[in-house]
Every structure is written in C-alpha cells, then in structure tokens.
Amino acid sequence: MGAVPAYLLSALIPVGWVLADLFFLSRRFNFITAFLGLNAIVRGLLAFWFVDGALYALKDTVGSILIVVVFGGSLVWGHPLLGAFVAQALDPRTPEQEASLERLFAERPLARTLFISTAGLALLNAITAAINFVLNLWIVTAPFGTGEFNSQVARVNALTRLTLGVPEFVVMGLAIWWVIYSLHSRLYSRLTDVGGRRDFWELVEAQGKRGPARASEDLR
C-alpha cells in the first residue's frame, strides 16, 4: 500500500467506526469516537499538504491546536467539553438519566469542577502543542521528500508521541476520574443513609426517590 492510500485509510477508519456505531451497533451518537474521528480526518487531509520547515512544524501541530480550540471554545460557550466525555463514560441509557446528569452538572460545585478540569486540559494541550512545534522546527530541517527529511520526522515522532502523548492521556483520565469522583461524593453527601459502594445510577435513583422538593434544595 502506498503513502496516499495509507493516509486515506487511516482517516476513514475512525469515520467508518462512528457511522457503524451510530447506525448499526449502539445506534447512539458516541461523542468521543466522533471527536477522535474528526481529529483523524484533519490529520488525514493535512497529509496531502507537502511542506517542510516551519510549515511542517505547524502541520504536525494542527491536531493539538484543534483540541485547544475545541476545549477552549466550549468554555466560552458555557458548556465545558469534559462533561461530554464524562457523560459518555457514565453512559446514561434513558432521557431521565440524561436529564439527571445534566442537573448535576449544572450545580455550582460540579460546574466549577468541569470548568477547571476542561481549562486545565486546554492549557496542557496548548503547552504540548507549543513544545511539539518547537521540536519539529528544531529537528526537521531537511527539504521535504528527501531521505534525511523522513529520518528527521521519524526521530521527532519517536520523541513527541510518548513524551507528550502519555501526559495528555494520563491527565485526561485523571480529569474524568475527578469529575466522576465529585459526582459520587456529592450524591453520597446527600444520601447519608446509603451504605456501601453503589453504582452511580443507583445513587441517582435513590436521590430521585427523595422527591422533587428536597432534591431542589440541593441545586445550589
């Protein structure tokens, strides 16, 4: 398989998975898969932009810039993007569960947690994007299409994919864990008569049984 078909295939596989999941598997929109698919499409399209020097450094950093723009834009919009990832992880199955989760996200402590964690992820990706750009600019200096160019690209990829990708992955996981932990803690603080470890949706259901009057007191 040549370079062009390989780039096309790498871009189309995530898109195909999103469509298969949406129409045939879960038949529900999977935000995380769609987001990763969008990133893959952008990277796949940029593969046909044959440049070197500073433009190549920019090209290799566009994926991270896209993440910063999307996460940062969600803060300006007033809907921190990490909430979509947490919702995907908790997997609400009914409209009632979705509405309950949205109400919890709207409560001030949870809204603050979502804002801080989303802002932290945007900042981290901005930092790693800047580092990635500088490293590419510093290491990849050969003209495009030469053997030395390919060697330099392989060298910088080996350096950045681990040193930058692993921290991004770990921090994303910790941010999602922090929000889910905060959700559990808030529910347990209200349901003082509930003992032992409970599933998140069991806690939400137990809170719902308290009645709308008492539940409304907690929306602060």
Can you walk through the features of this model?
With 220 residues, this protein is mostly helical. Helices cover 79% and strands 0% of the residues. It has two domains: 1-48; 50-217. The chain has ten helices and no strands. Helix 1 (3-23) runs antiparallel to helix 2 (31-46), helix 2 (31-46) packs antiparallel against helix 3 (53-77) and helix 6 (108-139) runs antiparallel to helix 7 (147-163). The longest helix is centred in the middle third of the chain and has 32 residues, at 108-139. It starts with a helix and ends with a helix. The chain crosses the membrane at residues 6-24, 31-51, 63-90, 110-139, 159-181.
Helical fraction equals over 70%
Largest sheet: none
Number of domains: 2
**Which strand-content bin applies to the residues?**
under 5%
* Shape type: elongated
Distance between the termini: 58 Å
| Rg measurement, Å | 21 Å
The count of strands amounts to 0
Element pattern in H and E:
HHHHHHHHHH
Give the low-confidence spans: 212-217
Global structural class: mainly alpha
Please count the helical segments.
10
Mean pLDDT: 84
Keywords: Membrane, Transmembrane, Transmembrane helix
Protein name: MFS transporter
Transmembrane segments: 6-24, 31-51, 63-90, 110-139, 159-181
Organism: uncultured Rubrobacteraceae bacterium
Spell out the key features of this protein.
10 helices, mainly alpha, 220 residues
Task: Give the topology.
Elements: H1 3-23, H2 31-46, H3 53-77, H4 82-90, H5 95-106, H6 108-139, H7 147-163, H8 165-190, H9 200-208, H10 212-217
Helix pairs in contact: 1-2, 2-3, 3-6, 4-8, 6-7, 6-8, 8-9
